Predict the structure.
Amino acid sequence: MVPRLGVRERTLGLICRDRSHHGVLSELDAEEHIARQLHRQAVVAAAQADAVRADEAHAQDGVNPADILQQPQRRDMSSGRGAELFLLQVRVRIDRARERSWILDELCKGGAAQRGSPRNGTKFHAVPGESGRTKQGSYIGHAPIMARSLVVTDFEILDATEHDSEAYEHAVEQAARTLSDGRLIVLPTDTVYGIAADAFNAPAVGALLAAKGRGRDYPVPVLVADQAVLHGLVTVAPEAAVKLTERFWPGALTVIVTYSPALAWDLGETGGTVGIRMPDSQVARDILARTGPLAVSSANQHGRPPAASVEEATRQLGSSVQVYVDAGHTGGRPASTIVDCTVTPPRIVREGGISREDIRTVVPDIA
């Protein structure tokens, strides 16, 4: 059976392995590559069969071999024709696929961005030949697959779209384990996707800053699972911070407070202060409940737009992150409003998902 590679949606690295080539290709390019190779092999085989038949005819009947080869009706092109038909079918499938914007966007462009030899430590997965999701929650595409394909990624995408599913539980547990190992994940929040590290693991926070292309002069905010954690991170919680978090958490509000000097963390050049937020995202809070406070920044490279989906995050951060938790599109909601509660009166540093007017209903003297 002719091998056919299946579409793996939302995974941007796909590999085609043969005798002489080991490169990362998009799925569609890989199919055409295999079809062309089989076609060339079939044409060569047909030519060799013609040559043998011509030699036999010359030996038996004294016919000139050149005359045999010049008679197309005498040639057996069954193998070559089969390869030609397969190549044609692949090209038709490619043309149809390219009419679908999500394939163009997620496979052609995404795969092209990751062409080249796979890096050390790359994971190869044998993907079952059927549509749907694997037990691990990784995505397999919607196109029918006749055989097995090899998928190579430097990261793992976990499905957390359905809260009451085994895939969701696996995604949350795997994300928590990855963070406890000192590695990075991307997780959804109520605003945009965020890149996360254990807040108390300085090398992991450093890796987060490096993945974003930022220096220590951009300290990382912290996400928490509930309001009680806020009181554990500060010596005394400012009254304004307490009132604001009681009113707007979970939600798009970040409060800047002076953290306790007893905390063993290094979030960058913080000056002794930290931005803290409780996201209105069940996935994020379920992960936070297992890990404790996380250093989280928007999932994008410095100077580029924040990612509102896993696809956007993988394009920007790629294999610098080990696990991506996919909960669908965040809807492109505004970033959080940031209120500095270390000064009197409190000051709005950035207006976002919560308006100044709403803040003033809680803290009337807000600056």
In short: The longest helix spans residues 27-61. The longest strand covers residues 193-198. The chain has a mean pLDDT of 74.
